Each structure stands twice: as structure tokens, then as C-alpha cells.
Amino acid sequence: MKQTMLRLALLFCVLTPLGVLHAEEGPTLKKVNISLDQTTLRKGLNVFTDVCMGCHSLRYMTWRDLMTYPEIGLSRQDVDDLRGDAPLSARMLTELSAKDAMDSYGIVPPDLSLIARARKGHGAYIYSILTGFEHDPKGRVPDGNYNVYFPGHRIAMSDPLGWLDHDSEDEADLKAQAQDVASFLTFVGEPHQVERLAIGKWVMIFLVLMTFVLWLLKRAVWQDVEH
Ligand code: HEC
Fold first, then answer.
1. Which of 41, 55, 104 maximizes ligand 1 atoms within 8 Å of its Cβ, making it the mutation to test the pocket?
2. 26 partner at 20 to 30 Å CA-CA among 81, 125, 184, 216?
3. pLDDT of 10-47, one tens digit each?
4. Which whole-number Å values give the CA distances from 42 to 127, 163, 169, in the listed order?
5. Ligand 1 centre and the CA of 106: distance in Å?
6. Using CA atoms, how far apart are residues 55 and 51, in angstroms rounded to an integer?
7. Which residue puts its alpha carbon closest to atom 38 of ligand 1?
């Protein structure tokens, strides 16, 4: 009896993590070439401001960042054309209010500053979502809201690039837009990481120096003590 219990417990310990791992596995994401070169990032930025920003914000990016991050490196004139009346120091916020979003979509679209980092698959996830709209095989989810890659397959964002009804001529263009904006959002998630890495470096240097000082101190304190 005791042994059976033990075996059951063991089995439980082995199977539970396996079950959890299995549950986390979504559909295999599409492959995409995430590129951080300036041309791609600028094209991705344009897709973002033309399309995505109708609903989504980038809370951690200011208009000025588009000039100061050399990876994007827009001119002052380019930024002025994009930002309209918003001050240079303003964050890149959508004009869609939370209330209007709730009324239209039943949910406030998430800020996309960190989405590439937050989701498993990163840029490939964004690309897959944008090119993953299909007709629901069971016919339950309305067209434009059925997405193969979104957990549960029902997404409140309706097909922003018009992927579902595209012609085969448009396909390459839409794929390129999805790739560019996925690359841009991957970059947007990065600068902060770069900053953190830089801070991390100073923390490490500080710790090493501190250790050295403490070691000197220890020597000074102990040198007169008889061993
Ligand atoms: C018409 C409004 C609208 C537009 C335009 C739009 N989105 Fe969304 N988006 C939403 C809403 C609403 C959600 C929340 C979906 C949900 O949770 O069901 C969302 C969610 C997302 C998500 C998150 C999915 C997740 O895992 O939580 C990503 C990524 C995303 N959008 C990317 C984009 C990109 C990139 C563009 C531009 C090409 C874009 N969206 C354009 C409304 C929009």
C-alpha cells in the first residue's frame, strides 16, 4: 500500500511538469527574418504609425527617441512630419481612448513597447499573429477575429493588415509589412535592455571594486592578529 502511494506520488511529480510544459506549447510559429537594419526599422515604424497606432501605443518610446536612437536615426523633419502637434518629448500614444476601445473591441489594446519581449517567440509571434488570420473552420468566430496563433484563436483585434482577404499579388507586400513591423517592435523592446545591460555593467564593476576594498580592509584589520 505504502509503495503504491509512493509510486503514485512519483508519477505525479513526473507527469505534472510534463503536463505544464505541454500546455504552454502553442502552434509552431511562422519563421521570419527579424532584421534590425535601418531600412527595415524605418519601414516598420511607418507601418506602426500608419496602421497599428490607430489602436496601440508605445508608452516607452518618445518621438525624440526616433532621432536619438541611431538604429532608426530619423531627421528632425521626418519626426516633425510624424508627430503632428505632439511635443518631441511626448510618448508615442494612440489617440484611441480607453473608453472608445472598450466600446468598440471590448478590451483596451495592449501597449506594444514590450510585447516582443513579453511573448514566447518574440518577433516571430508578432509576425505570425499578423499573418495568422483565417476563416474559423468551425464557423463560430467572425471573420477577421479568428487567428491561428492567438491563444484560444479568438482575438479582439480584427485583421489589421487585411491578411484574411488578400490577393496572391498582395501577399509578398503584406508579408513584408508584417516582417518590418515585427522587426521594429523587436527593436523597440531592446533599447531598454541595452540600457539595463549598461547599468548591469556598472553594477558589476562596482561589486568588483567593493570586493577589493573589503579585502584590503580585512587585511588591514587582521594583520596584527597572531595566527
Ligand atoms: C483597430 C484596432 C487595432 C489595430 C489597428 C491594431 N491592433 Fe493590435 N490589438 C488590438 C486589440 C483590441 C488587441 C487585443 C486583442 C485581444 O486581447 O483579444 C490587440 C492585440 C495585439 C497584439 C497582442 C496579442 C497578445 O498576445 O496579447 C499584438 C502583438 C498586436 N495587437 C499587434 C498589432 C500590430 C503590429 C498592429 C499594426 C500592424 C496592430 N496590432 C493594429 C487592436 C488593434
1. 55
2. 184
3. 666 556 555 555 555 678 999 999 998 899 999 999 99
4. 17, 21, 23
5. 13
6. 8
7. 52
